[in-house]
Fold:
Amino acid sequence: MQYNKLGNTDLELSRLGYGASPLGSVFAQVDQSIGIRTVHSALDWGINYIDCSPYYGLTKAETVLGKALKGIPRDRYILSSKAGRYGPEQADFDMSPARIRASLDESLQRLGVDELDIFLLHDIEFVDLEYVLAESLPCLEALKKEGRIRYFGVTGYPLQSLQKIVQNYQLDCVLSYCRYALHDTSLLSITELLQQHGVGIINASPTAMGLLTKRGAPDWHPAERALIDCCRRAQQLCSERGINITQVAMQFAVSHQAICSTLVGTASPDNLRNNLDWIEQPLDHGLVDEIREIFSDCAHSVWPSGLAENSDS
Ligand code: NAD
Structure:
């Protein structure tokens, strides 16, 4: 496993990280014991970075992850979790300092740890960014000074929101999702800016939250019909070549050197083993070009997220 330094921090994250949202049965009903086995396999197989959030399964993912991490030496893993998002609706966001502090205490208790390595504001585009800059981020900075967290940053889908925050506040890292994968590589439009500001880049959702798998996207997936159809065409092309589209998706997502770590979610040790084996194999650039050609026809590879003023479209 390759380990990469996260921005200006002293954290070295495995190139592939473990995204714990499936432990909250976000994609499909998950058997807790298999979920726990997947976390143990991830650590045994060289993954040292795990990401979670109170939002995933409405605290279930953190609770199951806490059970999985029990008894494991704290220096064996780098842990991130989040605050600010507690449900799917606009009303479920609260990035006030009081809620952030309470949220951290609750997450630490569920996860069974004394400190988070990385603490992230979850999906900033749903909140007034001026408020995030004036109130929420200073709270994270204070928590860092108090030694409750080691590093902090934000997560979000619209690149414009990430850009605005990075230009106005010194962060340790950002977590972007679905913006560097086979269907959309627009994260590259801000990687130089992030690097100039010393901000580490975490890339999530290499399968675009299930779009680039044989099973396809879950019902709640925000992608428009046109994008789902393009993913089906890409999957058909891969299957004609005798290749699983998820293999190409995984290899592609981890391939860019500006990205420190890519988070994949699964509650299956077999899927995780495949992902780890695939990223060690060479990428078929010819096939990637053909797949990217399919997405170049796609009118809507980006979907709206959050407040209209924070959206990319
Ligand atoms: P993902 O692209 O990792 O897709 C997960 C889906 O892919 C699951 O249905 C899983 O079963 C399937 N899958 C994984 N490996 C597979 C394989 N080898 N074969 C077949 N199917 C496979 O998307 P994700 O889970 O949303 O993202 C990964 C992690 O990134 C999350 O768990 C979370 O930690 C983080 N994330 C954060 C944010 C945010 O902060 N806003 C958003 C998205 C993701």
Notes: The first helix runs from residue 32 to 44. The domain at 3-212+250-284 is CATH 3.20.20.100 (TIM Barrel). The chain is about 40% helix and 15% strand. The longest strand covers residues 149-156.
